[in-house]
Amino acid sequence: MEPKSRHANSARWESVERKMITALIFFILASPALAQESTATTSGLSGCGPANIKFDVRLDQAQLPTEPESGKALVYIIEGDGQVECLGGCVTVRVGLDGAWVGANQGYSHFSFSVLPGEHHLCSNWQSRLAVYSSHYALANFTAEAGKVYYFRTRVWASDRTVRLDLDPVNSDEGRYLVAASPLVVSHPKK
Question: Looking at the structure, do residues 35 and 59 belong to the same domain, yes or no?
Fold first, then answer.
């Protein structure tokens, strides 16, 4: 009787070993695909800053420079939803550059900042306490040249069924017009 049970136990262990080896092979083969998907999801947001930073935004009467600093490029960000008066509240869109938030717009407004020459990654995000809105991001990249001015427009599109946030480059004629037509804002991280 002992030889049969030893043979039966051996067969069971071989079956268990085959299943474990199969599962291990599947896991090893699938893990690069899983890692790749996770990296692809987060790598696009590399232009954004930390999720916990929120901005206070207010109108400013100061005059911003219209020419870039020596050796740098100037970037304008215009929130172009067209609402000058925000009845019931304006959408605040924060903007990141190369992994750090650089400012925010609220309603129809603009701000600017200087960048060094080279490739840069922009991120815009709807700043909201509601996850359904704060999950909206828009991304862009550009290669800055010293002495040049770049214009980008953020827009929130909302309908009964969908909400979308865009971040698009704008040609210099349209950009100068939008800057002249919209108020300047300054933003500071909330404390």
Answer: no
Closest to 105 (Cα-Cα) out of 161, 65, 165, 52 = 165
- Match 């010293």 to its residue by tokens: 146
pLDDT tens-digit readout, 110-149: 999 999 999 999 999 999 888 888 899 999 999 999 999 9
Structural domain including 20 reads: 2-44
Element (H, E) at 25: helix 2-43
Which amino acid is it at 128? Answer: S
Task: Give me the sheet containing 149-158, strands edge to edge.
Answer: 109-115, 73-79, 149-158, 163-170
Q: Are strands 100-106 and 137-144 parallel, antiparallel or unpaired?
A: unpaired
Looking at the structure, do residues 16 and 106 belong to the same domain, yes or no? no
Residues 73 and 29 reside in one and the same domain = no
**Same-domain check for residues 82 and 9:** no
Summarised one tens digit per residue, pLDDT across range 35-67 is 433 333 455 788 999 999 999 999 887 776 678
Q: Which of 73, 49, 10 is nearest to 187 (CA)?
A: 49
Is the model's pLDDT at 96 over the cut of 80?
yes
